[in-house]
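Dear V.,

Thank you for sending over the compound details. I've combined the ligand you provided, zinc ion, with the protein sequence from our construct and run the structure prediction for the complex. I'm sharing the raw inputs here so there's no ambiguity about protonation or stereochemistry in the SMILES, which I know was a concern on your side last time.
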Amino acid sequence: MICPNCKAEYIDGITFCNDCNTELIPLNEFIDYDNIEISLSDWKEVYKTSDYIEAEMIKTNLASAGIDAVIFSKEDRMRLNLSYVGSAPIKIFVKQNDLETALEILNDINNSKIEDDTNE
Ligand SMILES: [Zn+2]
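Below is the predicted structure of the protein with zinc ion bound, written out as structure tokens.
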């Protein structure tokens, strides 16, 4: 058994973590999301938002420029039975190679947003 919160391992039969009182899960069901992020070290975070529609819009924009983007949401973590830490529920990742282009596209999106605001 393992604690999905602090990753402490326990023998079978124990159901709650001694340290943080989180319910334990079987070791084979545990996915270490922090390590997944690290193992995807050529993926870079380019954007944080709390708006899933905005995230999808940005992903679509990046895709139309030929950039693969991954949306990593709070729900992804909850589905994996992991506690979520951080204020921005949704993050967008692109590959290291695409980082500069992606940031330029995001800049353009932000600039057009500001123009839209001043026109109103
Ligand atoms: Zn724990």
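A first observation: The mean pLDDT is 80.

Warm regards,
I. M.
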